[in-house]
């Protein structure tokens, strides 16, 4: 089953996402900020998708994406940003660093799951 890394500083969001994805049969890893997400991605060479928040302490989502995208071992991992942010300049910048979708919080479960399925079917 595909492995998904959820990166968010909100434990409530991480737990909700994890439970929703586990219920669909996905394996889920959690990270509490971008730096923690980078470390987990480096330790697990079999991550199929990353779902990340934008604003987090220590390292934000866009910086994590930039680091992941510049690393040969992780640049292939598709990234979905799950955030309250909707700034078009930020979206464009993130797209340059591997972000392939942008989902606004609070997310609708059905839409999220359809998106995850489409990304993983690529």
Polypeptide structure, described:
With 122 residues, the chain is α/β, with parallel strands linked by helices. The chain is 43% helix and 20% strand. It is built from 5 helices and 5 strands; from the N terminus they run βαβαβαβαβα. The chain has helices spanning 11-23, 34-43, 61-69, 88-95, 109-121, and strands at 3-7, 27-31, 49-52, 79-83, 99-104. It has a 5-stranded parallel β-sheet with strand order 2-1-3-4-5, sandwiched between helices. β1, α1 and β2 form a beta-alpha-beta unit. α2 runs parallel beside α3. It is globular. The mean pLDDT is 93.
**Low confidence ranges:** none
End-to-end Cα distance, whole Å, is 15 Å
Shape: globular
Radius of gyration: 13 Å
Major pleated sheet? 5 strands, parallel
Q: Write the element-wise H/E pattern from the N-terminal end onward.
A: EHEHEHEHEH
Structural class: alpha/beta
The number of helical segments is 5
Largest beta sheet: what is the strand line-up? 2-1-3-4-5
Strand fraction equals: 15-25%
- Nearest-integer average pLDDT: 93
Write the layout of secondary structure elements.
Blueprint: E1 3-7, H1 11-23, E2 27-31, H2 34-43, E3 49-52, H3 61-69, E4 79-83, H4 88-95, E5 99-104, H5 109-121
Helix pairs in contact: 2-3
What are the defining features of this structure?
122 residues; single chain; 5 strands; alpha/beta; five-stranded parallel beta sheet; globular; 43% helix
Short characterization:
With 122 residues, the chain is an alpha/beta fold. It is built from five helices and five strands, in the order βαβαβαβαβα. Strands 2-1-3-4-5 form a five-stranded parallel sheet, with helices on both faces.
């Amino acid at each position: 089953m595909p492995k998904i890394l959820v990166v968010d500083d909100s434990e409530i969001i991480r737990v909700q996402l994890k439970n929703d994805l586990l219920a669909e049969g996905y394996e889920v890893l959690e990270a509490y900020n971008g730096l923690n997400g980078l470390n987990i991605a480096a330790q697990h060479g079999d991550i199929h998708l990353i779902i990340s928040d934008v604003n987090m302490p220590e390292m934000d989502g866009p910086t994590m994406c930039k680091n992941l995208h510049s690393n040969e071992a992780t640049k292939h991992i598709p990234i979905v940003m799950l955030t309250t942010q909707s700034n078009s300049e930020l979206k464009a910048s993130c797209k340059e660093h591997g972000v392939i979708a942008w989902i606004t919080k609070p997310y609708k479960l059905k839409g999220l799951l359809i998106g995850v399925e489409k990304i993983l079917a690529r």
